[in-house]
Structure formats: structure tokens, C-alpha cells
Amino acid sequence: MYKRIPLYASLLETCSSTKNLSHLKQLHSQLITLGLSCHDYLRAKLVSSYSACAQLKEATFIFSLTNRRPTFLYNSLIIAFSSLKLYTQSLSVFRQLLVARKSPDSHTFPAVLKSAAALSAHHLGQKIHAAILTNGFGLDLANSNALITMYSKCGDLITARKVFNIMSERNTITWTAMISGYGWNGSFNEVFELFDRMLEVGERVDGLTFTTVLTACSHGGFMYKGNEYFRMVFQGRFGVGPPTVEHYTCMVDMLGRAGRLEEAEALIEGMTVEPDEALWGALLGACKSHGKMEVAERLAEKIYGRRLLHPG
Questions:
Q1: What tens digit of pLDDT does each residue of 38-79 get?
Q2: Residue 259: in which H helix or E strand, if any?
Q3: DSSP state string for 115-180
Q4: Is residue 143 within 8 Å of residue 108, measured between CB atoms?
């Protein structure tokens, strides 16, 4: 019977990577029937798999029954809670890891930093930064990227830029994180300067990078630049394109803030993707601000054949 453990471990890993919850539940049922669900190694795999499938009630319960709890098991819960925006719970599991005297690894800190950033826990973030350096992960790309985001969201752009500047290796995520940081804090000129620098050094830009820059254009009122960057996406420059609904939403928001609702209307009519709630929210907000609700109503009728504000 125990010869089946490697097989089931492999099958559970597949469930984790594919996030196949129904298959995971079938395997779990089989393990209970075979009397293998109590095996610590398979329990660990179950915790990891349920966490990957965002089933944290099950993952936490099995975790509580597990006798051997290696660092990766704590990581599974830390990452899962953080990804579901349950930041306090994520940090609670991190504290449990420390109390249990387990050594964090390079996969532990990015999710912890994400939670600290979301809670604007700057002091905690600084402590985690020190722990990253102490544990020898100061040169790790994922940890450095997470540090940039954490410091930026806590309003500490100076330290965020210091982390960025000393990095020996950077990727698209690094540049986008720093650009986002400037955007979040209203430093729009730095957004454009760093984006231009990113292009100069030949770093690959992606859809998220353009969403970040377009958001800065919207919030800062940079109409000309916004149109220029959107045109780049529309033309497929740098391998990015066609525009996603996020790009269109940024443009609608930008045009709406400027009161150019007819242009926003024309843009939406020519969209190659279906509008989502965020885009309609941006349009409705602008229409309310400028007293032109008829624009939103007219678009809803054209696209969906129904009234936006009074469906049915």
C-alpha cells in the first residue's frame, strides 16, 4: 500500500499546478479509503494542493493535523492567504512559522511583503527586509521585486528606488513595480522617465507595464502621452497588443476625467473586447461628474440592447 505514496504525491502535485479541485477531492477520498490520508508526506501535499485551489478551510484543517511541518508547508498557506487578500491571516501563519523555529526560504518573503504592503505595515516591511538580507536572499530577484512594491505602497519611494538601483539583475516585473510605485505616489514625471529608460535599455515591456503607464496618464491628466502610449499598444509596438479591456478602461477613465465623453463613447464602440464592470464604472463615474448620463445609457443600448442603469 505504501508503495503508492509516490504515485499519489505526483497526482496531487498535478492537481496543485492545474488547480483541478474536483480531481483533488477524488484523490483525497481515495487516500482516506486506502488509509493513506494520515501519512505526513501526503498530508503536506494535500495542504499545498488545497491551498493552490484556494480551499483554505480544508488546507488549514489538514495543516493542523500534520505532525511534520516543513517550511514549504507554511509557505503554501502564507501564499494562499495573501493571494486571496487575507493579509492578516497570511502574516499570522508567518508568525507561526517563526514561533515553530522554522527557517524561512526565498519563497516565504514575497507573499509576506505583499501582505505587509497591503496593510501599509512599513515597520514590519523593514523588519522583513532585514530578515531577507540576514537569510542571504538580498540578491534574489523575486524578493527584491517584492521589496520595491512594499516600500512603494508604504510611500517610501526613496528606499524603493535604492533597492531598484542596487539590483544586479532586473526583469519586466522589476521595472513595472518601480514605475507603478511612482504612479501610486503621484510622481508622474518619474513614471515617464523610467518607462523611457526601460525602452532604452531594451527591457521587454508587457501589457501590465502599459496599463501602469496609462493609469499614470489618466490620474495625472496627461492626455497627449496617454493617446501616444495607447497608440503603441494598438499598433502592436514592442510585441504588446491588441489592447486589453484594462487598457481601454484606462483610456475611458482618462477621457472621462477630462470631460471628453463623446471620445470615450467612440472608443468603447470600437473596442475589440467586451467591456467589463471596471470599464463601465469608469464611464459611469465620468458621466455622473459631468452630468451626461445619457452617454452611458446610449452605449449600453448599442452594445447590449438594454438599459445600463435600469435593466429589465
A1: 888 898 889 989 988 999 999 999 999 888 888 989 998 999
A2: none
A3: HHHHTT-HHHHHHHHHHHHHTT-TT-HHHHHHHHHHHHHTT-HHHHHHHHHH-S---HHHHHHHHH
A4: no
